[in-house]
Amino acid sequence: xxTFQAPKGVAEYVPPESAAWLAVRDGLIxxxxxxxxxYLELPVFEDTxxxxxxxxxxxxxxxxxxxxxSDRGDRSLTxxxxxxxxxxRAVLEHNLHRGQLPVKVWYAGPFFRAERPQAxxxxxFSQVGIEAVGSDDPAVDAEVVSIAYDxxxxxxxxxxxxxLNSLGDAQCRPAYREKLQAFLRDLDLDEDTRRRVEINPLRxxxxxxxxxxxxxxxxxxxxxxxxxxxxxxxxxxxxxxxDLGVQWREAPRLVRGLDYYTRTTFEFVHExxxxxxxxxxxxxxxxxxxxxGGPPLPGIGFGLGVDRTLLALQAEDVTxxxxxxxxxxxxxxxxxxRRELVKLVGRLRHGGIATDMAYGERGLKGAMKAADRSGAxxxxxxxxxxxxxxxxxxxxxxTGDQESVALAELAAAVxxxxx
Length: 419
Ligand code: HAM
Hints:
The chain is α+β, with helices and mostly antiparallel strands. It has helices spanning 18-34, 48-54, 60-64, 84-93, 138-154, 173-185, 191-199, 201-204, 210-215, 228-243, 288-291, 306-315, 335-350, 363-374, 384-389, 410-418; strands at residues 38-39, 45-47, 67-70, 76-79, 103-112, 124-133, 160-166, 249-250, 262-270, 278-284, 299-305, 328-332, 355-357, 378-382, 391-396, 402-406. The chain has an 8-stranded mixed beta sheet, sandwiched between helices. The chain is elongated and about 90 Å long. The two termini are 42 Å apart. The model has no long low-confidence stretch (mean pLDDT 95). Histidyl-adenosine monophosphate (HAM) binds at residues 82-84, 113, 115, 120-122, 125, 127, 129, 131, 256-258, 278-283, 285, 301-303, 305, 307-308.
């Protein structure tokens, strides 16, 4: 241990366990690549106002959880707590919305929220996300939801539930909001919650405390107050999802923690790893572009938590398909053998075979132990006597079989054994 430790609450992964984390990240994004989403590399920090306006002044994310700092030019910047506002900013900045619509992009990387750390809740965590910007076609909603669904299923995850809701739009939400507020004002609520009733009443429906939950059972639900356009849109989304074989549960109280959502909203929940059950979520944000100063540009997307998905897989005892371990391990005994094997290792790697070798003077026994630990299928062992004879010992580490192979034919022999 050094003087230093990683900051509190960050998600950190070291080999070999980190291979599973990578497999989760890549697996979650694979279905998006098959659906024509292009990669967007975004900055990790943005103008603070992008988030406070885009995500919403009344959200916990903005009021309590942002890592905000001034740069040397006294600009207020914030480490991104989420990806959607940055994506819409980039789409507008690069005029992508003037091209083919919807603009379809994916992104992956670290996000930052100053939350109280616990299992599955970190201050630096990782998301993969997609956004489809510039269309309100309900078939796009179904595409986005089903891509997330396929991502989880593709990794072998089964114990999750997709919760689905529609939050209405600028036409029907205001009237519903007032109705809900009138209902909530009559309840016995603490000071903080009363304030929330005035600022963000929908969030009260999502309160996890028993005392609040009991009181809101009969609250009016947005699903019963959708305008005709929103109702039709939601019916269409569900029709497409059913056609795609996606299973979901209607969640009329589902309200997400970010203010930009309209119409279709969804969350993937998994009960396997403690209090933090949301492994991913998303929805439509038809007014976000205008909120940040752009033209009307409806959009929908999701963010999936890589760290929580890994925890969910572990809870189900499912190992994600980890690719790319070492296939061959070279063990030189003596300086001359080392020279020979450094060359061979280079050749094998250039040929696309993942190869490692024993470095340092650790003797045959220690080096063979390292070979076993590496997970490689084959070991190539060369000592002075082998060199004099122009051969190497090729050992199959799974069966223990060993044979002598001429150095000149070694690369070919390794390839043959691995194929
Ligand atoms: P979000 O629900 O805030 O949505 O985050 C998405 C996912 O990120 C969560 O479901 C969870 O798995 C993971 N996550 C969030 N906070 C933490 C944390 N502190 N520790 C570990 N994992 C966490 C968004 O961020 C939206 N931008 C999603 C979206 C995209 N909506 C439309 N497009």
